[in-house]
Amino acid sequence: MLLDLVRPAEAEQPLPAVVWIHGGGWRLQDQTACPDLVQHFAEHGYVMVSIDYRLVPETRHLGPAQR
């Protein structure tokens, strides 16, 4: 699976992180369906991770591929 990671450019200390899970209802979209990660998060001191997940019908819902 894929993810996009955005962080402040010159951070020297540990930072809080936000994991964005796109709202595709297990059927639509991918990790790119997110707000502007730099503008809304990285510029304010957050590490931002936008994740991808397997979609139906190619993958059975709550089957082994979802775990």
Summarize the structure.
With 67 residues, the protein is mainly beta. The chain has one helix and three strands. The model has no long low-confidence stretch (mean pLDDT 76).
Q: Level of helix content?
A: under 10%
Query: What string gives the helices and strands in order?
Result: EEHE
The average pLDDT is 76
Low-confidence runs:
none
Work out the radius of gyration: 14 Å
Strand order of the largest sheet: 1-3-2
Q: Tell me, what's the shape?
A: elongated
Q: Structural class of the secondary elements?
A: mainly beta
GO molecular function, one term: hydrolase activity
Pfam families: BD-FAE
InterPro entries: AB_hydrolase_fold (IPR029058), BD-FAE-like_dom (IPR049492), Lipase_GDXG_HIS_AS (IPR002168)
Protein name: Alpha/beta hydrolase fold domain-containing protein
Task: Explain what the structure shows.
By secondary structure, the protein is mainly beta. The protein has one domain (3-66). It is 6% helix and 21% strand. The chain is built from one helix and three strands. It has a three-stranded mixed sheet with strand order 1-3-2, with no helix packed on it. The two termini are 12 Å apart.
